[in-house]
Amino acid sequence: MNVTVIRKASWVVRWEGGKHVYGRDLDVAFDNSGILHVGAAWQGIADLEVDGRNRLIMPGLVNIHCHSGDEPLAKGLFDDTGTPQLWGNALYEFSTLIDSDADAKAACQTLMLSELLASGVTSCLDIAGDHPRWLGIAAESGLRVWLAPGFRQARWRLTEGKALDYEWDEAAGDTARDEALSVLDRLAVDGSGRLTGVVAPSQIDTCHPDFLVRALDEARSRKLRLTVHAAQTMAEVTELYRRHGKGPVSLLQEIGVLGPDVILGHGICLDHHPLTRARTAKDLETLAATGTNIAHCPVTFARSGQGMESLGRYLRAGVNVGIGTDTIPFNMLEEMREAIIQSRCRSGDFADINTAEVFHAATVRGAQALGRSDLGRLFPGAAADVVSVDLTAPSMRPVHDPLRSLIYAAAERAVRDVWVAGRHVLDNGKPIGLDTAGALAEIDAAQARAIRVAENTKGCSFNAIAPRCLEMPA
Question: DSSP string spanning 119-158?
Answer without folding.
Answer: TTEEEEEEEE---TTHHHHHHHH-SEEEEEEEE-SEEEEE
